[in-house]
């Protein structure tokens, strides 16, 4: 169980009714979404956010995936380049 505390945030009036009386799963998703900008700007990692939320990193990644936020932010070309670099490094290691 994660220790929690109450904080006050300013939200538009029409939004407040959606923040009252949430079930635990909805609250978890809301809190994950509150942390997401800090993951994007690299203030915190997925693992760090998951630790704060008291869940496994894989569960947090799954939550974001279901909401349409991809864990991998690479294009296929970038991923292919990364894989080729990895293969070249592996060949060099094997040659030693």
Please give a structural write-up.
Helix 2 runs antiparallel to helix 3. The termini are far apart. It is built from 5 helices and no strands. It is mainly α and 96 residues long.
Features:
single chain, 96 residues, mainly alpha, 5 helices, 61% helix
Give me a quick take on this structure.
With 96 residues, the chain is mostly helical.
**Total strand segments:** 0
Any idea what the shape is?
A: elongated
Our count of helices gives 5
Unreliable parts: none
End-to-end Cα distance, whole Å, is 49 Å
Order of helices and strands: HHHHH
Mean pLDDT: 90
Q: Which structural category fits the helices and strands?
A: mainly alpha
Approximately how much helix is present in the residues? 55-70%
Give the percentage of residues in beta strands: under 5%
What is the alpha-carbon Rg in Å? 19 Å
**How can the largest sheet be summarized?**
none
């Amino acid at each position: 169980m994660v220790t929690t505390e109450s904080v006050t945030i300013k939200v538009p009036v029409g939004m407040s009714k959606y923040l009252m009386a949430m079930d635990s799963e909805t609250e978890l998703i809301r809190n994950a979404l509150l942390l997401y900008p800090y993951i994007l700007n690299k203030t915190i990692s997925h693992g760090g956010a998951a630790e704060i939320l008291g869940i496994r990193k894989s569960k947090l990644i799954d939550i974001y995936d279901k909401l349409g936020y991809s864990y991998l932010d690479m294009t296929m070309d970038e991923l292919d380049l990364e894989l080729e670099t990895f293969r070249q490094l592996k060949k060099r290691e094997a040659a030693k």
